[in-house]
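User: Predict DUF1516 family protein's structure from this.
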Amino acid sequence: MTTHLHITAWALAIILLIITIALYRKGNMKGGKIAHMILRLDYLLILYSGGSLLTYLLTHNFSAYGSSLVPEVIVKALAGLWVIVAMELIAVKTGKGKSAKGPWIQLVIALIITLILGFGRLPLGV
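Assistant:
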């Protein structure tokens, strides 16, 4: 159940980020701020569900998969936090009318790392 909550939360975050950017670029600052605040609430849901998955993997699953997954689980958690930070940087810089090229590059790199580890390497993918 937590896996589905986590996947739904980060999919919603990507959609909310796109909506926030579109509103800011159209000059609708009030709508952009509202969408940005909802995005920030979604970050909390991502952190909760991700922390729950992390706790489960670190405490219950290593008897079946071995302790060799510990570094990968930690890297995935850090990459997930990196995704959230990059998304927030993109939203803030776009809201201020500044270039967000660097945060976009960071988002792509962190998202690729997170998706490869989450769906390709670690258990509980879907």
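The mean pLDDT is 88.
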